[in-house]
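A protein record pairs a chain with a discrete description of its three-dimensional fold. The following entry can be read in just this way:
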Amino acid sequence: MSSTAVQDNPESESERGPISDQAEPKPCSSFHFRSGTPRSRQSSPGHSPRPGTGGETTSFWGGQRRSGKRKVERVWYSRKRVKGFVGVIGLVVLYFVMNWVMLLRLQDHRIRSKSWVSGNSSSSPVAIQWKRYGKGKKPQKGNYERMLRLAAHALAEGHSKPEPKDLWQEPFIPASSWKPCADQRSWEPNEGKNGYIMVTANGGMNQQRVAVCNVVVVARLLNATLVVPKFLYSSIWRDVRDIYQEDHFINYLSPDIRIVKELPKELQSLDLEAIGSLVTDADIPKEAKPSFYLKNITPILLKNGVVHFLGFGNRLAFDPIPFQLQRLRCRCNFHSLQFVPKIQQTGALLLQRLRHSESHAGPLDHYLVGPYAAPIKKENESPAKKASKYLALHLRFEIDMVAHSLCEYGGGEAEQKELEAFREIHFPALVHLQKTTKLPTPAVLRSEGLCPLSPEEAVLMLAALGFKRKTHIFVAGSQIYGGRARMIALTSLYPKLVTKENLLTPSELEPFKNFKSQLAALDFIGCTAANAFAMTDSGSQLSSLVSGFRIYYGGGLTPTIRPNKRRLASIFSKNSSIEWRVFEQRVRKAVRQTKHVQPRPRARSVYRYPRCDECMCNMTLVT
């Protein structure tokens, strides 16, 4: 029986149904299938067989009445309609079943992806670490729980993928064309005839460094003799002057200014405040121009023979400054200030442990740790062993920084009360300003990029940039606000994260105990010598000095990640809905734009942006 016959004869199926109840068909019945003539046409009233024509023999059922035929036809059509309806329903059900199966598979994939955070690492998955951390103590993740899970998934999937090409690099050709040249002099030594300048610098190690170099320039400007600077005690920084090599400082700058270790005896007994020679920050405008010192300080110096600057934080402008004075500023910062041997030796030990090698010296080591940077060969160490790359991260998230920023970090009412209490004690002027002036809200401050990145935001930035989970990370900074609970996001996603306290033994750290400026010097060394350096707050003095030092001596081989916090704030604001791939692309674009090599903008710090004619020489212009 051909398929064509079946298709052309729609009654064939219904006719076969009662075949067991009828007589055997006649042999001539086979012609009805091959003829292609529908049975309904033969049995219809308009084509009923006439008597004597043999029409009754054409009935397949032989002898069945005409009403029976109509009944069979109606049954057949009813069954066909039912089958069509059932078929449509079946297709609809199949569509929904297939969608349900696909959704189940996607959910199962997500669940497995979340649990497979560690890749091939032996560390526990991030979600498990968060759950187990602190015996029920909930880690602080701010508002980024969803994004942290996406970051964990991306790090787990990306362990076998290559890192972005520019991750550990900066634009080499334009960056390497700038060479250090602040050591070049074209003037005669200053005799210091007009009197003596003393300075007691406040703040931490980095603020003190800036104050020292600024006062060197003022001494040259006023033709005064500089007394070796001293460092002021404060409520946060509790150490004094044993940071830099005094003799090297005096000898290196001797062609520029006259420096002595103490005042002449005839001046030591003077009451400087009583005679009007004590000058505080309240007496000097911030970033004062050279003309201010010539007009206001020179008369005091000539009258009393001595001036004592107390504090001296950011009290000298960067522009306009005569060329040679600006070069002196750079010479002081990059050449004259060398750490004392105690800091150099421990700093060299820190670098060896960060690199997992005792015989490898980085390109900046000589300028940071002096003679302790010489490679040390061990008999049992393979000469082919390579040093590990590491990323340094300055996580500027101490309680003083967080409190002073007036930003919120997801800690709710408890966080607000704690920070308000801290401000009452340490920043009373800011508290008074809050009460008397309408200040921007925390949301506005964040949108303007005025809030330092939290640990959660920092780790999301690093993951988006493409740093792998196995990356060695050195975190600089003192006590992170929120403690270990605040750091769990970083340590979970990047288990190879260390601090100087992890790498150095208690006995090695003992000489620095209670000396925060000296501990800050170790952080400075660890950050400056890193293969890549990332900051979370561009306004930090440590970040500014480290990035400037890396530019000056790095030769285009020491990239620095300077996040644009305003752009990042816009990206982070979409954390509840943004997809990870889009987040990656936007973060990388925002950071890539900050890597452009450009000369120092006018009025910006030469300590942070030394690419200027006063500090460095652009060899592309020379050739």
